[in-house]
Task: structure prediction
Amino acid sequence: MEKMSKYSDYATDLLFKYGPQLLLALVTLIIGLWVINIFLRGFKKIILKGNVDPSLHPFLRSFLGIFLKTLLVISVMGMVGIEMTSFIAVLGAAGLAFGMALSGSLQNFAGGVLILLFKPFKVGDYIEAQGHAGVVQLIHVFNTILTTPDNKTIIIPNGALSNASMVNYSTQVTRRVDLKFGTGYQDNIDKTRAVLKQIIESDERILKEPEPIIAVSELADSSINFVVRPWVNATDYWAVYFDLQEKVKKAFDKEGISIPYPQQDVHIITKK
Result:
C-alpha cells in the first residue's frame, strides 16, 4: 500500500510539473494546424489568381505545408521540454546525407521549379536543347518530355535544361526562311534575281513586311551564291522552306539558269 502511494505521489508530481506544458503544447499544436490550414487556403487563392503554371500549384502548396508543419512540430517538442539541439543536429546530418545521395535528382527538381516559374517554354512549343529538338508534350518537376517530328519521345532532365542554352522556335509569331542558291558564272545576275523575286512574290504565304531579301552573298569557287530570306508566319515555315527549293529548281531549269556543282579537272602526265 505504501508503494502504491509512493507511485501515486510521483505521478501527481509529474502531472503538476509537466501537465501545463503538455496542455499548452497540445493547444499550440491544434491552433497551429488550424492556422496553417487557413494560410494554405489563402495561399491557394493567391497562386490561382497569379500567373503561376497550374502544374506547379500542388507542389507549392505541399512544400509550404510540410515546411510550416515541420516548424510547428519542432516548436511543440521544444515546449514539452525535449532537447532540440541534438535532434536538429541529427536531422541536419540526415538531410545532408540525403541531399548528397540525391544531388542529381535535387538539381533536376530545382530546375523543374525554375522552368515552371519562369516559363522559358510551355507545352506545345517547339524547342531545341541538349542536342535534341521537338514539341514539348509534358513538363514534370524532374524532367521534360519532347516528341520529335519523326515521333520519337525524348526525356530531358530539367537540371540540364534549366542551366544550358535553349532555342524556342514558338515564341515569335513570324520567322525568317534562310535559303541559299548558287548559279554559274556564265548566268546573268539580274535575270537570276528577277526569277527569284517572281517566285517570292507569287507565294501568298510570304509576308510583304518585312520585305524579303534577295542578294548576292558570295562569289564562290564554282558559283555565284544568292541568299533568299523571306518572312513567313511561324506555322508556314517548313512548308515554305521545302516548296521554295522545289520552285527555284524548276524555274532555273525553265529559264536555262544553271546550278553548278563542284568539279575537278584531272591532268594526267605521261612520261615518254
Notes: Residues 2-49 form the longest helix (48 residues). The helical segments are 2-49, 57-80, 84-101, 103-118, 158-162, 189-202, 237-255. Strands lie at 126-129, 132-139, 143-147, 153-157, 166-168, 174-176, 179-183, 213-219, 224-229, 231-233. The mean pLDDT is 81.
